[in-house]
TrEMBL record:
Top-rank lineage group of the source organism: Bacteria
Organism: Niveibacterium microcysteis
Domain GGDEF: 219-348
Reactions catalysed, as given in the entry: 2 GTP = 3',3'-c-di-GMP + 2 diphosphate
TM annotation in the entry: 23-44, 50-69, 130-148, 160-180
Keywords: Membrane, Transmembrane, Transmembrane helix
Record-given protein name: diguanylate cyclase
EC number: 2.7.7.65
CDD domains documented for this protein: GGDEF
One Pfam family linked to the record: GGDEF
């Protein structure tokens, strides 16, 4: 993740999410340590080995938390360090298997769990590559166990267990990788390539679902149609590359400015649609906040701020999506005719003087 592509706030938000996910690893390692402690208490796992494993279980997640908290993870291609965290978990599993003895057949199933964390995040080739760790790690653990005099099952049974693991793990990796492919293809079909926002098809699907839920449950929501002011002049004066930069900058600004739960999509060209939960008052404050933020942000490609106009309509019970968007679109044209850089409500007018100190 580069700062040239993302704002400081977006980087910070992503880092907080990664940190929370990495902190969850402490729970996973803690639960595993509890199971091993119970096994140790009934004589199925050596006490000395438990101390070694506990140190590794503590240091491993602490290392990744420290990398993310310090920002050092941003140097990697995958700032979430997903592959590295899965590899570390598998290596720790191999360490436990070395001392597991008669429990080895059960403990080796723990190899499957880290692979699940790679679903939606890692490709099939990467997940299959991670399977090489248990492929080599389990035989090494068995050899080390025998060398230490900690024999488990018969070698014939150990071989069958390893073969079964090598059947299950690649299949698990393949399924998890397919989930990644599905997520990627779905994202490509739902997202606008230039802005990274939802596209028209995804917005219509969301609105269709929302209208089905809102009418019987009396859930209020609004739709706003936004359009840049004098966008054609920007393309004519500065070129289409500058126009694209205006759209990308606005998309980043909108994601940071709109409320959590509001959905924005690129409707086409320089036009956007925002679905806002709540009544007129809540929606208009959210749109005004976005409009004012846009008017106050200088776009480097054009050397000034680019304003926008907005039309806002409240969904009426039983109203179709087409009718709702049409009313918001008419309000947008009213805002354009009234002087631009303003929000027009379907049936009401809203400008900066009326909003006052909107949040």
């Amino acid at each position: 993740m580069s700062q040239a592509t993302y704002t400081t706030e977006q980087i910070a938000r992503a880092q907080r999410l990664r940190l929370r996910r990495s902190l969850l690893a402490f729970l996973f390692y803690g639960a595993s340590a509890t199971v091993l402690a119970v096994a140790c208490g009934i004589g199925l796992f050596p006490l000395g080995a438990l101390y070694i494993v506990l140190v590794m279980f503590l240091c491993t997640p602490a290392l990744f938390v420290a990398l993310i908290a310090s920002g050092a993870n941003l140097r990697w291609r995958d700032p979430s360090l997903t592959e590295a965290q899965i590899a570390a978990a598998m290596l720790n599993c191999t360490l436990v298997l070395t001392f597991a003895g008669p429990l080895r057949g059960i403990v080796m199933l723990a190899y499957i769990l880290p692979l699940q964390f790679g679903a939606f995040a890692l490709t099939t080739p990467v997940l299959l590559r991670l399977c090489l760790i248990p492929a080599a790690g389990l035989p090494l653990a068995i050899a080390a166990s025998h060398w230490l005099g900690m024999r488990g099952a018969a070698l014939e049974l150990e071989l069958v267990q390893w073969m079964a693991l090598m059947l299950v793990l690649p299949f698990t990796a393949y399924v998890a990788g397919r989930l990644f492919d599905y997520n990627r293809y779905k994202r490509l079909s739902d997202r606008d390539e230039l802005s990274g926002l939802y596209n028209r098809r995804a917005a219509l699907a969301y609105l269709d679902q929302l209208t089905r839920l809102s009418t019987p449950n009396q859930v209020a929501f609004c739709v706003a149609v936004l359009d840049f002011d004098h966008f054609k002049q920007i393309n004519d004066q500065f070129g289409h590359a500058a126009g694209d930069e205006v759209i990308r900058s606005f998309a980043l600004l909108a994601r940071d400015t709109l409320r959590k739960g509001d959905v924005i999509a690129r409707w086409g060209g320089e036009e956007f649609v925002v679905v806002l939960h709540g009544d007129y008052e809540q929606a208009q404050h959210s749109i005004e906040r976005l409009r004012e933020a846009c008017a106050g942000q200088v776009v480097e490609a054009v050397g000034r701020a680019v304003t926008l106009s907005a039309g806002l309509a409240l969904h009426q019970p039983g109203e179709s999506i087409a009718s709702l968007i049409e009313r918001a679109d008419r309000a947008l044209y009213a805002a354009k005719h009234a002087g631009r850089n303003r929000t027009e409500l379907a049936g009401h007018t809203l400008d900066r003087r009326q909003v006052g100190t909107a949040a």
